[in-house]
Amino acid sequence: MKKLIYLAVVCISFLIACSSKSSKELFDSAEAKVKAGDNKGAIADYDAAIELEGDTASVIAIWHRGNTKTLVKDFEGAIEDYSLVIKRLPRNANAYCCRANIKKVTGDIPGALADAEWVIQHDSVNALAYYLRGFCRMKSSANADALGDFNKAISLDPRMHYAYMDRGRLNLNTGKTAEACADFAKAQELGSTEAADMIRKNCK
Q1: CA–CA separation, 80 and 74 (whole Å)
Q2: pTM, whole model, 2 decimals?
Q3: Residues in CB range of 165: below 8 A, 6 or more apart
Q4: Is residue 201 part of a domain?
Q5: How many Å apart are CA 197 and CA 180, to the nearest integer?
Q6: Would the pLDDT of 200 be above 70?
Q7: Number of separate domains in the chain
Q8: Nearest to 99 by CA among 112, 84, 113, 118
Q9: Is residue 94 part of a domain?
Q10: How confident is the model over 82-92, as pLDDT tens digits?
Q11: Which residue has better confidence, 54 or 191?
Q12: What is the pLDDT of residue 116?
């Protein structure tokens, strides 16, 4: 009897080990497919790995699946994944920023603003959160507040080219052409692909 129990325990342990190995292999395969540009294939592997692990699914796998869904413009799916991450890690500022960014892209400005403000309340030196809040405020015509947020984001991360771009747009919209052109020039220097067109159209 003891031998049978022992063998059962060994079998169960073996199955668990195989299951863990399989989910890791699927995760590794998904990561490799992302690097190769096969995003849809990667999502299928993330799905399989997460389904295999059930309620104990890796937060990293869910997070990376959300990132990959963003790449294929499955924004609703990405928000669902980032929300799952937040449910598991309710104080993770980066997850809130990821979700805020998708809400920004999809036009959910109030939702993006709420996520960005949560981050700022809990992480007062998060450059991305200030940028996101600045973008939301700009879209809501709160120009002075938006400018303050863009300035803060740039002071925290001077290489954030998209903060320069949107501060440039804000400056342009408020009649500060010289300041806007300086921002577009800096964004171009930092690698922005949008800056050259804005400079051509607005700066002499």
Answers
A1: 10
A2: 0.84
A3: 183, 184, 187, 192, 194, 195, 198
A4: yes
A5: 13
A6: yes
A7: 1
A8: 112
A9: no
A10: 999 999 999 99
A11: 191
A12: 98
Residue type, 70: T
CA neighbor of 94 nearest in space, from 134, 67, 68, 71: 67
Residue partners of 172: CB distance under 8 A and separation at least 6: 180, 198, 202
What's the pLDDT score for residue 74?
Answer: 98
CB-based contacts of 204, cutoff 8 Å, min separation 6: none
* 78 domain-assigned: no
Query: 177: closest CA among 152, 198, 151?
Result: 198
Please provide the average confidence, as pLDDT, over all residues in the chain: 90
CB atoms within 10 A of CB 48: 17
Is residue 165 a part of any domain in this protein?
Answer: yes
pLDDT digits 0-9 by tens, 37-69: 999 999 999 999 999 888 778 899 999 999 999
Domain that holds residue 186: 159-204
Alpha helices by DSSP H, the chain: 2-36, 39-53, 59-71, 75-88, 93-106, 109-122, 127-139, 143-156, 161-173, 177-189, 195-202
